[in-house]
Amino acid sequence: MTDQASFQRARSAQAKQAREAAILDAARTLGRRHGIREVTLTDIAAEVGMHKSALLRYFETREQIFLELTAEGWQEWSAALRADLGTRGQATPATVSAAFAATLSARPLFCDLLAQAPLNLERNVSIEAVRRFKLVTLEEVALIARELDRLLGLTEQQAVDTIATATGLAGALWQMATPGPRLRELYTSDPRLGHAIVEVEPRLHRVLTGLLTGLERAGGRAVTRCADGDDRQRR
Fold first, then answer.
1. What are the residues whose beta carbons fall under 8 Å from the beta carbon of 103, sequence distance 6 or more?
2. Which are the contacts of 115, defined by CB distance < 8 A and separation ≥ 6?
3. Residues 6+ away with beta carbon under 8 Å from 146
């Protein structure tokens, strides 16, 4: 926890940036520890060592704080996914979906944020905050789409649909995979309810493989892109 006096003395632009970073770090830590839904603005203020009224000078609501973290999550995940895909001269639907599933499941906080963003994070912030968030996501989607075009020959719409399916499903599956102690005990104690707890990565992999395989079989612009640069139309 940061000392409250140091925040009271800070006046420069650099100090303001440090405060904002400290607030985001506190929210990130609490989100990982308790889950996004359980973290209040008061919790974040206490973690960072300042009064809630002072925190509101930097972020308008708790939702804005977590929306900022969601945007950061998009950038971090996109970079990791593209780094994986970028090493490949060619790929199949299964290998591309494996990269999606592995990079998303490795980021539980981001998966949690993906579920919360459309449900509430975008609903209690200014229009300008939503605009900034959406522009970040659009940029990352475009960058990922280029890799999907290069490797699988997906059209822009096919790539957008794939990314939307992956991120939306990752958010939903993460909520199912982390039901909380009481529900987990219920699900594990009754064999009939065991299906209620899911493993994010394997299910995400299966669903995305099915989606990409279906797009491949549908034809369109789908091509096999080989390491030597030749394109072979898929039938």
1. 77, 80, 81, 84
2. 171, 172, 174, 175
3. none
Fill in the DSSP letter of residue 122. G
The ranges of the chain with pLDDT < 70 are 1-11, 219-235
Residues 19, 25, 29, 31, CA torsion sign: positive
- pTM of the entire structure? 0.84
pLDDT digits (tens, 9 = 90+) for 158-177: 999 999 999 999 999 998 88
Kindly report the number of other CB atoms within 10 A of residue 146's CB atom: 14
Q: Cα(225)–Cα(90) distance, rounded to whole angstroms?
A: 6
Rounded Cα distance, 141 and 139, in Å? 5
Contact 117, 70 (CB under 8 A): yes
Residue 19, Cβ density class (10 Å: 0-12 exposed, 13-18 middle, ≥19 buried): buried
Tokens 């420069």 locate to 12
Q: Closest Cα to residue 80, out of 99, 60, 61, 59?
A: 99
Instruction: Specify the amino acid at residue 85.
Output: L
- The H-or-E segment that residue 133 falls in is helix 127-152
